[in-house]
Each structure stands twice: as C-alpha cells, then as structure tokens.
Amino acid sequence: MSDETDVLVLGGAGVDTIVYVPELPLPYADSYMIDSGIRTRAGQTGDFVALGLAALGLRTHHLDLLGDDPEGDLVRALHRERGIALTAIPQPAGTKRAVNLVGPDGRRLSLYDTSRAHADDRLPDPVLRSLAASSRHAHVAITHPCAHALPVLRESSVTLSTDLHDWDGEDPYHEPFAHAADIVFLSATALTDPERIMHRIAERGRAQVVVATAGAEGAQLLADGELTRVPAVAPPAPVVDSNGAGDAFAAAFLFGHLTGEPPRRCALYGAVAGAYACTVPSTETAAIGREELLDRAAESAAAMR
User: Fold this and answer.
1) What pTM does this model have?
2) Do the domain assignments include residue 156?
3) Nearest to 220, CA basis, from 244, 189, 248
C-alpha cells in the first residue's frame, strides 16, 4: 500500500479544563474568584502534536479511543475544523479529561482524570496495521493502548517517535516506549542527569535521536552519538502559557525530519515552534504555520552565526 499519511499520531486525545490561578503552588483557601473564567477545550498531547503537524502541511491521521460524550464531541469537532483525519475507537469509560491550573508566569499543574482509561484498553490490531501500513511515520503517546500497540508498530516498516514527557529516568512504565522509538523526546524537568539518561536510551533501544527539552534553557540533542546544546529561541510575543510547548517542539522536529533536514536543524525548528506555543493561551489551540516556522528558523540561524 502506498503512503497516504505522513504521520500517524496514536493516543493523547482528550479535553482540558483551563483555570488561571494567581500563583503556583496554590495556597489553600476556601475559594478563589477566577476573573478570567474557567474554560474547557479539546486538546491534549496527541491532539496538539496532530495540530502542529497539520499546520506545517503534513498529512496527519490521529487514532485514539474516544467516548460518546460531550468531551468526545469537542475532540471530533477540533479535528474536523482543522482538517485532521481522526479514527475514534469507542471508549465506554468516556473521553480523557484533565484540569490545568495555569500560573501568571505560564507554568501549569495538570490534574488527570484516570477514571477515563483502563489498563486493558486496546487499539484494534487490524485498524492499527492498516493505518501504519499507509503512514511514513508514527508518533506514539505514552498511554496504555499505545503500549500494547508497540509490537504491532514495530512489525510494520513505519518509523516511530514518542514523548516521555517528565519521565524521571527510572519509572519502568516508560521504558518500552523509550526503547521502541527511533526518535525520543523528553523533558529534563525530572532528570538529575539528563546526559546519562539520553545516552542510556540510545544504548538500550533503537533511538537514533534523543532530545531533552528544558524550556527557556533550550534543549540537548543526542544524534549520531554526539551531544549538542540547542539554544532556546526568543518567543515572538509575551509568554502567557507553556502548555503544549513540548508537543509543538515535537511536531516541528518531525516536520524537519520528514523533509530531510539534519537533526540540528530539526531541533531549531522545534525550538521555534515551542517558543511560539508559549505565546498562545491555554484556552486556545493554535500552531505555527510552515512559512512562519521557516522564516523564524532562518532568522534564528543567522543570529547564531
């Protein structure tokens, strides 16, 4: 079967309720008045990666479990409005939900409703095989259904990427994802020795590229056995929210990878897209477009010379 999709995104579909709070951590009080409002919108990690890829012109297909509920309707509407193909497997437990508390500096605290997912949830093998066979690449969220999907994906010819998010380098749940993927993203937030963990991922698994992001401190890139630092890129507007920055980084990096750019250039694309994402309020879903990404990357590369 010929490729019909550039990137198959597995998992990470859901809905977030955004609450802007006066500070984080939030001191105990009987109540807080939220003048900015409390808003619910579609968009969790898989949705944001799919959105970022599609905004950059890549043919994107998203596969996950969704409930027959108002939250699922929001997710379906987001994909329909942005022209992103979506295969939704029925989820009797309902669509995944989270509450994000966002501080004035853009940091967030996420509260995930784990009742909307179960360890025995599965993505049907026939659907998975068919979509993988028609895709150039698959980006895999670290959910239980995706963990079970890893062997099927590895049997196909599709290359894989994953985002381990704030893995501490020790939790064994993340290891199958880290070792199965050709490109691994993770946050350095919970890592005491990012370089050691990055090298360990590459040594024990299939990864040709490992990227550890560190927000305003930039990122570290391990490619071809060489570790290099990727400087952060100045945001094009005031920073209002860090939500989705890692997903934007991953999407732009994959755009570079699939268009034949070397890893360092891919990481620059990621830094540009991540900086852009920090200027988008949590209540909105927006991603940088291809022309703006390339222009800002060219400007940043020139400034670094």
Assistant:
1) 0.93
2) yes
3) 189
